[in-house]
User: Fold this.
Amino acid sequence: MPDAAATAVSPPHAASSPPRRLRAEDWLGLLVVGALVVLVLAPMATVVVQAFVPGLFSGRVRAIGIDGLLEIFERPLWRRALENSLFLAGIASVVGCALGTGLAILRHGSGLVLGRALDAAAWAILILPSFIVAQGWILFASRGGIANQWLGLSFVPDLVFNPWGLAVVMSLKAFPYAYITVCAALHWRMDDYVAAARLCGASPLRVLATVRVPMLMPAVLAGAVLIFIDVLGDFGLPAALATTYRFPTLTYAIYVAINQSPIRFDLAGVLAFYVTGIMLAAVCAYFWILRRRRYDFLGARARVGEATGGTRLGWPDAVVALALLVALVLPIGSSFLVSIADRLHGGFTPDNFTLRHYAFVLETGGAFLSALGNSMGIAALAALGSAVIAGAAAYVMTFCDFRLNRLIDLTCTLSLAVPGVVLGIGYIFVWNAPFLDRAGLSLYGTWHLLVLAGMAGAIPIAVRVLIGAMAQVPASQLSAAALQGAGLVRRILTIVVPLVAAALVAATLTAFGSAVFDLAINAILRPPRLDVLPVYVNRAFEQGEFGAATAATLVAGGTTVAIIAGVDALARRLMRGLFAPPRRAAPETA
Assistant:
């Protein structure tokens, strides 16, 4: 909100008056823009420029043009990676969207007994890193895995390890995007249209296909696009599959390009450009489809469609139980069984269960504890930094008439669609540039770059969380404080922060949890001698140490959840103590 002095009516001859001085809000907005340029815009711009000017940021410029972009079609491996990525993303978006939409409709229309369990499981699947879920599927479905060795289901490996099976696995990981968006759209319902269709003789299936789903089309398409973007930019599945099944994708090809000899930063930039370009094309297609027709069907008879729980189990609960079993219980349960199994081929025998894998990873002075400590420290710094910048950005966009607000909003929106692999490549181009090295500002090969990349990945989500909370703060309170002489910093610390404290804590903890298990950023940007948790787990898995990898994953996951729950409980207790109304003194008795 502008200061009171800035909102005064301009004098008649304003054209001849001197230019207005920058206010405190303008300086804050410029700081936010500068931070977003360094953290997001500059890395994204280098990826685009590198595709047309190969070698620009390494000091060895090649021919300027589109030759680098066409090179992907001349290399069979990279062309196959492009085809595989498009196939996975396309099939997963269709299957995952259908699954998420169907479960959302069941959740809001069938009185599910397992409704709350479905809600919790959807968020759990969404938060879990994809490489952990993929490792669980490999341990269950590989030829030496639980399904074949323990259960005698010899058909499972061939069923899962093929392009269609992998697409289904990815859809099981990404369907919560469609489930959450469609559930949000079902908050308001117009049952008159459904009743009219039924009176005309339409069957329930036809009503679903011709009335309910068309009215939900914006949310359905949004879920499909989110799934497409998530699967296309996923690095966890191909990284986990590298030891079991040869299925190259664009993201893994980028990782290979910067880890081969000689290092091909130019080729990595081209592949990253394709990933970003395809994602932006998917988003543009989504908006183009929405503009072709209207979807404003809510009227005066609309009512809130609350998802109520049921009292008796029915076939919808059986469908939900099956979906949760396949999407969550199988991969996570397989990881747990392997973590307590002495030998993967030992089967369900008492002498095959042990805790030696947990003892190994918890060994004092071991690599796991060092990697866990490093990842926790980096994630904490990234979470705190992202909370500060996101809070400032949300304040500027909500309460200030800063001229670059649209740039801030656009940057935070676009960066949501940039996968960690692309962001990591951009950070290499920026912070490994020769001119920064000569100036002594090169951060490539240091842990500081992991903190900056973690902040860049967390800021867009934190901004969305905080904007929703700040929208509830009356601007009149800030205006009144400004009229009383309170400066910008004092207004933020004494009015805004207390009112949005809960959202600020939630955004910080979300950023912390996601940064701990970010495999793509850590695999690309970590210094050679720095142990970090995602790389430790992935390396142990690649080396066939499945028990150690799963034990490390479960210990780290439990520790992260405990820290988040403990900090959240402590923050809530502090907020209750600080913001609780004062107790009234008891009246004195005669």
